[in-house]
Amino acid sequence: MRKVLFTVFVVALAWCAGTTIASAQATTNQTLTINATVSARVTLTLSVAAVTFGDADPDVTNPIVLTDVLTITAKARVGAAQGVTLTAAAAGPLTSGSDTIPIGNVSWTCSGAGYVPGTMNTVAQAAGSWTGPGSYAGVHSFSLVNNWSYAPGNYSTTVLYTLSAA
Amino acid sequence: MSARHRGRFRTVTRGGCLLAAVLLAVAADTRAQNSSTVTATFTIAAQTKLIFSATTLTFPDADPDTSPVAATQNPITVTAGARFGAGQAVLTVVASDHLRSGMDTMPISALKWTASGPGFVGGTMSMSLAAQTVATWNSSGRYIGSLTFTLDNSWNYAVGNYGTTLIYTLSVP
Q1: Residues in A touching B140 (Cβ below 8 Å)
Q2: In chain B, which end has fewer C-beta atoms inside a 10 angstrom radius, N or C?
Q3: ipTM greater than 0.90
Q4: Is the pLDDT of residue A19 over 60?
């Protein structure tokens, strides 16, 4: 009988010991390293590919201001202190056959942080500048000096916008 | 069978029964006298194990207009072993810091994951004391799940090579 009791006691002791060990907390850690590469890139989006000035009486409407505006979205991922520049350069004067209108008669006003107004030129003109990465939206509103000296015709030229990181 | 043989058979049978009874008695007596108990104890302590199929996640450069960016190693397979009594096994994760490249940072909340597998849940990464739950289980076992990581992209990120460390912790009561 004493042997049986002793056995029960031993079993109970073992069970208690096992329970005590099992109730101890356990923790495991695993480390995961994260690497992300961000390279320089810029994109430029213009809302329209062409703007058209309508005919107007030079004594009544001068300059001719476009009602349609050009919305520009300049996106740049550069260094935090790196400069971003937007320029506009005309290919040449407005031309209709052999007739021309000086490109300097086209100018623009603007809205949007970093955008600057200017006068069109065949030499690239600053249209906006920023520092650091970001997405910058703005609007250009064009105007054309109207003049009795313009020969009748359909004039056109192209303007090249360039967004670049310094 | 003749009467003589029958008498002998009864005698032998009786003798056999008597011998069997004696043997049984002896055997019974032997068991009583030599009985002992062998106690087998098998200690099962609380235990955890955590294995990841990869220990580095890489997010390549990508056009921010096609956000988010997927990790090159996706999906990560997580194998968690948890042995415990009452309670719940919990797998959590916390980032040591934002993603940093020199002075430039990406918020750690840009890092997100989706999950598959029993007990696993998706989430958004955080840091400091705000550990996020990755999985919970109510009973001991070996659990396998998959984690798929994405990083929100943005034009506002400065150019650089960013990095941080995630610490996964599996705990059982």
Answers
A1: none
A2: N
A3: no
A4: no
